[in-house]
Specification:
mainly alpha, 91% helix, rod-shaped
C-alpha cells in the first residue's frame, strides 16, 4: 500500500513543482498565448467590422447604381420622346413645305395656262380679224366692181348714219 499512498514530503515536493510549473507557464506561456488570443480576437472583430462596413458600402453602391440606372432610364426616355417629337415636327414641316410648294406650283401652272390661253385667244382673234378683213375686202371688191354698186352702197351708208 505504500505505493498507492504517497508520503507527505512527496506531496509537498509535487505541490512545489506544480506551483513552479504553474508560475513558469503563467509567466512564459499563458501571457503570450493569451496575447495571441487577444490579438486574434481583435483581428476577428476588426475583420467582422470591416466585412460589415464593406457590406454597408456594397448596399450603398447598389442603391447608388439603382439610382443612376433609374436616372439613365429617365434621361433615355426623355431623349427618345424629344427625338420622336423632333421627328414629328420635321415630318409636319416637310408636309407643310410640300403642300406650300405644291400649291405654288399649281398656282404658277394656272397662271401660265391663263397667259397661254389669253395669248391663244388673242392670236385667234387676230387671225379671225385678218380673215374677216380679207373676206370683206374680197366681197367688197366683188360687189363694188362697178360704179352703180358703189353709189348704191354709199347711199345706203348715208341713210344709216343719223346726224344729230
Amino acid at each position: 500500500m505504500e505505493l498507492v499512498t504517497p508520503d507527505i514530503g512527496l506531496i509537498i515536493w509535487q505541490l512545489i513543482v506544480f506551483l513552479i510549473v504553474l508560475i513558469i507557464l503563467r509567466a512564459f506561456v499563458w501571457k503570450p498565448i493569451l496575447g495571441a488570443l487577444k490579438t486574434r480576437e481583435f483581428q476577428i472583430e476588426d475583420s467582422l467590422r470591416a466585412a460589415e462596413h464593406a457590406q454597408e458600402e456594397m448596399k450603398q453602391i447598389k442603391a447608388d447604381n439603382e439610382y443612376l440606372l433609374q436616372e439613365a432610364r429617365i434621361e433615355r426616355d426623355a431623349i427618345l420622346k424629344e427625338a420622336r417629337d423632333e421627328a414629328t415636327r420635321i415630318v409636319e414641316q416637310a408636309k407643310s413645305e410640300t403642300s406650300d410648294i405644291t400649291s405654288k406650283m399649281i398656282q404658277e401652272a394656272r397662271e401660265a395656262i391663263e397667259v397661254e390661253k389669253k395669248a391663244a385667244l388673242t392670236e385667234v382673234k387676230n387671225l379671225v380679224a385678218s380673215l374677216s378683213l380679207e373676206i370683206a375686202e374680197k366681197v367688197l371688191r366683188e360687189k363694188l366692181s362697178d360704179d352703180k354698186s358703189q353709189k348704191a352702197l354709199v347711199d345706203k351708208f348715208i341713210k344709216d348714219v343719223k346726224v344729230n
